[in-house]
Structure of DUF775 domain-containing protein:
Amino acid sequence: MFGVVFPNRSFPIDISTFSQIDTFHWILDMNTFVGEAYDSINEICIFLLNSFTLPPDKALAVYIQSPGSHFVFCGAVTLSRPSALLSLTWPDPGGQMQLTAADSAPLSAKIGVSVDDLASLPSLDVAAEKRIERLAMKVGENLFNFMQSFCGVDGSRLVVPMDILDRWFKKFQEKAKRDPQFLKDFA
């Protein structure tokens, strides 16, 4: 049904390497590959092996879990998007779930894959949305800092020149043309 690759870290891994929990859920114990260095794995490529195994209204969703934490959604593949390179931002270990004395198995990081309703998923690529959000915040911060250097105060109001946005945008464009790294620093 699916396979995964950890870029620069593994050969393709098929579904047989995962433990099947039930018909629609699989778990990969990261101790199998990297032991406690699970957080050094920061990307996963997941791909469908054929189009006959996943209905069009379903998605194959990827979740990650640090030792002692809850699963966190990372992204998904669908028939119209049969492969994806997803960033793995591991949650902080431990804090949310506590191990009791009755639990004999050691905690380990896991990657979960499940068949979910496409409509129920927030996004197919969570990391891409976070990058866009971070970029927008950095651009807004740059604009605010530029405007603040030209502000005057009138009672409880900040006063800026009328052409401040034009001046900022021209400066922003010039900087981007001069220094290609400038825009990459925002991301």
